[in-house]
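Now for a specimen:

…
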Amino acid sequence: QVQLVESGGGLVQAGGSLRLSCAASGRTFGSYSLGWFRQAPGREREFVVAISLNDDATYYADSVKGRFTISRDDHKNTVYLQMNSLKPEDTSVYYCAAGRSIAPGLVPRTAPQYDYWGQGTQVTVSS
């Protein structure tokens, strides 16, 4: 059974940083991409960033480009989301997800393209 477990959320002041982790287990993910989504109360789930485990291709949402960085540690089967210069509008539950890579150099960017989801971790940015 596939498991994705997020950690690292919390409360931080605007301008601060957090690093989220997503530990994956239960299968080999060589042909998959791992992505981060977020969902604030009353809003749809929003794509944040994803990385292909095939070729390290990445794609960032415009809202986080230049502030967030995704990385991976294959030895630990873990993907990280480093979040810097946090803003109050980044406040959300952040979800890790795994979905099949669609083509070389590309990563899936919509929630229906992802097969497996973690339970989410809350990030709150105070002003």
